[in-house]
């Protein structure tokens, strides 16, 4: 479920970072303005709880596999959307740094996919509507289940969209969708069931905890509206960028087919060579067919990529040598006093 | 299962221990490292999807960092391996969908899909490696301070610090619960049934909430007014400027120009001249 840096293009990663940063700033100011300072330690500890809870796995009956809690929805129920979003963002930041889940550029996407959807869509629009302050076991179950499923479906849809828009993976949109959505249907059901179970447990043992958050009115319309507006803006931006990208850089091969056998064929060889050079700038290694009268440039091209490889390997070797050297020096010069203990 | 949890627990601690060391890299201002890491990641992912040759020189950066910071390569590689499945799972479809032959090595045809798959793995290693190196050479609390200084909302950085402080305690509680359960579960061999799982999770949650209330009282009795004050000296000196600008310039040169191709051609010419 975690998006990875390697699958992202800078444009998509940057847009998602911007959207996430905006949401973080928005939630922070919202919380600061009507600060209930009890919440500060509660947010931190509950975020740590999500971590600890993910260590406990239950066995799914009938199968050998196991499931655990995702946490976004449960945090939203316990803390309200803005605080839950910040807590979820901190969980994902720690996961990105310590467990290398995803990576730093993808952090924007991950916070968006796993934070915004459960906190600002699944919880207020679905869970809250169904439970509506009268938590009966049936309502709790229905609300959590539906909210869990929809939250995760939206999240995995976002992963598919982000990956497809980035264009690093070759998976076509539809196949990727078919691959991802059913898995996340199962995960969403598990998430909903666990959330419902834990909330009913709390409801039976310590109902006042839930009454506290349910009675709270601070997370009114504003942050949700702001976040939805941000979402719409991000969509438009992404769409605009994508369409520009698509017209500017068609598939490398199609572009080549269009260009080479076309009118430029009659021009001086230098023209062909230049256009080839142009293609080569776009894709490092190119298909062998499609260029019928370019034996000479072909050889030149291969020569260039061989040179590129050799040069790269050289720099790599220098780097490794430098690393080893520095490491050795670091070991011999170990007698430094420790300044911060 | 218990062994796996203990391992994850140990790993966080180990990364933090690494950050305690005292090397030129560890002494750098965290803001310089954070911004350089960001520049590195953006340069790496901005390459076209068939790029391989251009990515290789970027291994220079992690190599220098590992050398400067005297960090254990094996441990970092093992962490990379643990998180690789998702990227491999998505990337392995590239050879399947992109079967255009781009290169012939003797009788072996290499398709565009394999090239882009290898490129994907290189990107993964570089970007995730850079994040791990950042944490191993800086430490989490210091990164939070750097984020704070760079303008991240204070509530969020405080969240991060509190989360980090209580992770170890709550994971410890979770581990003790699991151990207690597995000692009493006999023929289920530590497998946790759904109903029991809910009870365990609910109890852990109640304990966490109670803990948060105690923390809040302790904070109040120490004059907490809702604002967290951070005392920490930072020093963005020439060393930091040199590190940040030097590496950023290197990334841009490696990304924009064909330095490596030029170098390679030079070597080939030398070779031809000598032979």
Proportion of beta-strand residues of chain A = under 5%
Provide the domain count of chain A. 2
Using a beta-carbon cutoff below 8 angstroms, give the protein chain pair with the largest interface and the number of residues from each chain.
A-B, 110 and 129 residues
CATH class of the largest domain in chain A: Mainly Alpha
Summarize the structure in words.
The complex is a heterodimer of chains A (341) and B (275). Chain A has 341 residues and is mainly alpha-helical. Chain A has two domains: 244 residues, Arp2/3 complex 21 kDa subunit ARPC3 (Orthogonal Bundle), CATH 1.10.1760; 77 residues. In chain A, 74% of the residues lie in helices and 1% in strands. A two-stranded antiparallel ribbon of chain A has the order 1-2. The longest helix of chain A is centred in the last third of the chain and has 38 residues. Chain B has two domains: 184 residues, no CATH class; 79 residues, no CATH class. In chain B, strands 1-2 form a two-stranded antiparallel sheet. In chain B, strand 1 and strand 2 form a beta hairpin. The longest helix of chain B is centred in the middle third of the chain and has 31 residues. The termini of chain B are far apart. The model of chain B has no long low-confidence stretch (mean pLDDT 83). At the A-B interface, helix 1, helix 2, strand 1, helix 4 and helix 7 of A face helix 1, helix 3, helix 4, helix 5 and helix 6 of B.
Short characterization:
The complex is a heterodimer of chains A (341) and B (275). With 341 residues, chain A is mainly α. Chain A contains 12 helices and 2 strands.
Q: Secondary-structure map with pairings?
A:
The complex is a heterodimer of chains A (341) and B (275).
Chain A (H helix, E strand, L loop, with lengths): L9 H24 L5 H17 L2 E2 L6 E2 L4 H8 L1 H18 L8 H25 L5 H30 L6 H33 L1 H9 L5 H28 L3 H8 L9 H14 L12 H38 L9
Antiparallel strand pairs in A: 1-2
Helix pairs in contact in A: 1-4, 1-5, 1-9, 2-4, 3-4, 3-5, 4-5, 5-6, 6-7, 7-8, 10-11
Chain B lengths: L1 H18 L4 H4 L2 H16 L14 H10 L3 H11 L1 H7 L2 H4 L3 E5 L2 E4 H27 L1 H10 L4 H31 L9 H28 L16 H19 L2 H16 L1
Antiparallel strand pairs in B: 1-2
Helix pairs in contact in B: 1-8, 1-10, 3-8, 3-12, 4-8, 9-10
């Amino acid at each position: 479920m975690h998006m990875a840096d390697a699958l992202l293009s800078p444009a998509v990663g940057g847009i998602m970072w911007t959207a996430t940063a905006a949401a973080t700033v928005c939630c922070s100011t919202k919380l600061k303005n009507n600060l209930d300072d009890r919440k500060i330690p509660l947010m931190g500890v509950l975020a740590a709880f999500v971590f600890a809870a993910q260590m406990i796995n239950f066995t799914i009956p009938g199968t050998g596999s196991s499931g655990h809690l995702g946490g976004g929805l449960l945090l939203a129920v316990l803390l309200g959307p803005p605080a839950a979003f910040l807590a979820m963002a901190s969980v994902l930041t720690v996961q990105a740094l310590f467990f290398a889940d995803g990576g730093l550029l993808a952090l924007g996407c991950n916070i968006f996919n796993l934070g915004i959807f459960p906190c600002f869509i699944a919880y207020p629009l679905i869970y809250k509507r169904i439970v509506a302050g009268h938590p009966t076991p049936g309502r709790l179950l229905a609300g959590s289940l539906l909210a869990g499923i929809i939250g995760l479906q939206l999240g995995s849809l976002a992963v598919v969209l982000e990956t497809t828009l980035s264009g690093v993976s070759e998976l076509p949109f539809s196949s990727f969708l078919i691959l991802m959505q059913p898995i996340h249907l199962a995960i969403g059901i598990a998430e909903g069931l666990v959330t419902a179970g834990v909330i009913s447990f709390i409801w039976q043992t310590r109902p006042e905890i839930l009454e506290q958050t349910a009675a709270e009115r601070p997370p009114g319309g504003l942050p949700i509206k702001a976040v939805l507006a941000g979402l719409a803006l991000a969509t438009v931006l992404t769409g605009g960028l994508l369409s520009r990208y698509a017209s500017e850089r068609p598939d490398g091969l199609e572009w080549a087919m269009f260009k080479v056998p076309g009118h430029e064929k009659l021009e001086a060889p230098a023209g062909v060579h230049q256009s080839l050079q142009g293609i080569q700038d776009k894709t490092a290694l190119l298909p062998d067919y499609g260029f019928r009268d370019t034996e000479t440039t072909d050889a030149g091209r291969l020569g260039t990529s061989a040179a590129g490889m050799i040069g790269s390997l050289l720099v790599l070797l220098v780097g490794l040598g430098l690393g080893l050297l520095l490491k050795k020096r670091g070991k011999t010069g170990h007698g430094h006093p420790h300044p911060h203990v | 299962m218990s062994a796996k949890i203990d391992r994850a627990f140990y790993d966080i601690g180990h990364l933090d221990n690494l950050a305690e060391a005292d090397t030129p890299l560890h002494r750098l201002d965290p803001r310089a490292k954070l911004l350089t890491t960001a520049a590195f990641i953006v340069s790496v992912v901005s390459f076209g999807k068939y790029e391989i040759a251009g990515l290789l020189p970027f291994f220079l950066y992690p190599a220098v960092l590992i050398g400067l910071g005297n960090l254990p390569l094996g441990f970092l590689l093992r962490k990379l391996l643990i998180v690789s499945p998702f990227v491999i799972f998505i990337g392995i479809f590239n050879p399947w969908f992109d079967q255009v032959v781009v290169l012939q090595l003797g009788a072996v045809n290499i398709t565009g899909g394999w090239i882009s798959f290898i490129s994907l793995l290189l990107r993964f290693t570089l970007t995730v490696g850079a994040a791990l190196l950042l944490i191993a050479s800086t430490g989490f609390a210091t990164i939070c301070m750097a984020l704070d200084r760079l303008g991240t909302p204070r509530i969020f950085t405080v969240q991060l610090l509190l989360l980090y402080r209580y992770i170890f305690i709550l994971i410890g509680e979770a581990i003790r619960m699991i151990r207690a359960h597995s000692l009493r579960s006999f023929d289920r061999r530590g497998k946790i049934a759904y109903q029991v799982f809910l009870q365990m999770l609910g109890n852990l949650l109640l304990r966490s909430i109670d803990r948060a209330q105690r923390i809040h009282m302790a904070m109040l009795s120490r004059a907490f007014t809702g604002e967290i004050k951070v005392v920490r000296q930072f020093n963005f000196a020439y060393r930091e400027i040199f590190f940040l600008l030097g590496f950023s310039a290197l990334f841009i040169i490696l990304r924009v120009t064909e330095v490596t191709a030029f170098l390679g051609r030079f070597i080939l010419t030398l070779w031809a001249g000598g032979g």
